[in-house]
Amino acid sequence: MNDTPIKIGLVGCGGRGTGAAENCLQSAKNIEIVALADMFPDRLNGCRKYLADTKHAGVKIEDKNCFTGFDAYQRILDTGVELVLFATPPGFRPMHVEAAVDAGKHVFMEKPVAVDPVGCRKILEIGKKAEQKKLTVVAGTQYRHQEGFMQCMKRVHDGAIGDVRAGRIYYNGGGAWHYDRKPAESDMEFQIRNWYYYDWLSGDFIVEQHIHTIDVMVWAMKGPPMRATATGGRTQRVGPKYGNIYDHFAVDYEYPGGVHILSMNRHWDGAPGHVGAYFHGSKGMAMPYGVKKEWASEITGPNAWTYAGPATLGSAYVTEHADLIASIRSGAAVNESKQVADSTLTAIMGRQAAYTGKTVTWDEMTKSLIDYSPDEYVFGPLPERPVPMPGKV
Amino acid sequence: MKRLSRRQLLAAAGSAAATAALAPYVHAWGHDKLKVGLIGCGGRGTGAAEDCLRSSPDVELVAIADLFPDRLAGCRKNLTDPNRDGGPLAVKLDDDHCFTGFDAYQKLLALDEIGLVLLATPPGFRPIHFAAAIEAGKHVFFEKPVAVDAWGAKKVIQFGEIAAKRGLGVVAGTQRRHQNSYLETMKRIHDGAIGEIVSARCGWNQGALWVHERKKNESDMEWQVRNWLYFCWLSGDHIVEQHVHNLDVCNWALKGHPVKAVGVGGRQVRTEPKYGHIFDHFTIDYEYAGGVHMTSMCRQQNGTDGWVGEQIIGTTGASDPGGSISGSSSWRFKGENPNPYVVEHRDLIVSIRDGKPLNEAGQVAESTLTAIMGREAAYTGRIVSWDSLLKADASLAPKSYEFGPLEVPAVPVPGRKAR
User: Fold this and answer.
1) Do residues B36 and B52 touch, judged by C-beta distance below 8 A?
2) Which residues of B touch A230 (CB under 8 A)?
3) Global confidence as pTM
């Protein structure tokens, strides 16, 4: 079965896209990356050169299979690829993935998979379509493919810490890159190049980054929370080049039975960082991120346990692709659409609670008409929404 | 206006510490009328005076003090109004017993006849006023919070210990400690009704508070003291000024103070200069000994959803410590719940008359420090430990107390530099 090469296209040639392509090539034999798509020629060329420099035999990208512009994601679907990797800014994800599934392609999609509730519902719809077509859809929430996390979560679900009574999840860091605007750059081009800082492209950093940890919460709790109450704002990272996103969020996620989970994430340069998840049970605690060593997931209490297998932190980025390729080859389709859409919407719920200062329910979110996508995708003027003001949104 | 330097005030407080070990302060309150002085004639001070007078027999308000003549006059008129709701109060306020200015509290404390003082100025003045009151041998009721910085909280702890040695009563305005529904629920929590405590949450989420528009010719100092909520040296920021109530309940449930805090916060909506330099929202993750965490959330943002309360989560149940327990020992408070703002005064006065004075100084200072620790965590972005906080000696107070220029500090930017 491994003799048949799987031809792959990449949509979104930035750092994560290039990394995902490389991870995919490393994950299995007979993988060929044959086509690239990106909004910008310079980003595409950079990715193409990087992949060529790996000297990997599976890198077979011809000029005719390189596409740029807003419609590049459509044109790549006609190149004979079987699997498409999506790693553009998340705002494009629902639209792009829909086209791929409609064209019968298997999908790997980076997290998050949407920036608004409308986009999340689109992903659910696409997921169902993929299921009917027996297509595999894997998401870049790689902890779901990381051995230590998987074993830890299984133990939590099997009752190792009793009932989960409370929890805490953190993604506290110093911030991200930003892109300085060039003269004569249109609003649209500048925003896409500086995509991290625009709600319609990244979903704000609680969605873009903290989704990893929020996904671990949703995993541990076997589903999304009932509601969220939050504070947030822009305290340190202010100024026009940082678009309209916040630099800190603190969300109180509530589950049935009065179980609350504190979610905190911040981009404050010069403040100490912390990425982790802690679940306090009626008998012991679960720490999937590990404390003594980052990959050494741990459970305390009467059923104490520490993951003793090999360090899997970095390799999970490859494992997720190995699982994806194995699923395609075996014909047993894997479909992570709902799981990652739920986690994305959970992050969005926290964001909306902070933006509005209102308690936001899951029910409201599943029906919400909030749609951040621009009216049209053209290089030209694109006024940004103001930074959200709680109580006034 | 007499100018008082902070150095002079500290020197006065220090001399009291040196003489504190002298003979216990003795007063036969059991048979005398208890004469009361009020320092801080704003809304809360006026309310505290009424609550005190209504709480117990043979109590009389005989002196009042405030920085501003207009606030003092308003309070005096209010409290002496014979037609006020609930009937006239036991008040005798002669002109020579009404004091204004920065040194008004000293003049009031110099009156020998006064046995109990109520301290209800902006919290930034509290440690100095408290130290002076204890030094003057007065029993004290003081409003929360009792400080705005670690320096002040430590001063309160120190003079609380002196008060204990001198047999002086000290009760704080954290009135939930005197509220039956809380007392009954907390007893059950401590008796194991929710199992072992796993986690806690508390919040004070509400809209914006009052603001005084600045008047022409008002000095920086006068403007700031009249708008004290919005200046950290006066209020400690709203996490300290208001949310201390809920933090105090969590400390009560957990029988101690947190060991460290990490937080987020900012000034997102309430950004105009008239709101000084404080934040409008905080969320703090507090960690207690044994690894129990407590989430604290507070905001003052109009149009946002409100919540004022606490939740204590245990291994076998959960509790709203204000009156209910869910889980295997489900229970709801149904008893009498008299006004805790009155009960706190009655409890103090009864304890004084019984010769077993209550002393809440340490307890409320710890809760105040808890709030300060959270504020500093959000202001700096750092992990702030209790121990490091206790080592801090800087005071937020101005170098001198006089009506004149007083710069508004910059809004804190976390991660940028140490405070």
Assistant:
1) yes
2) 283
3) 0.95
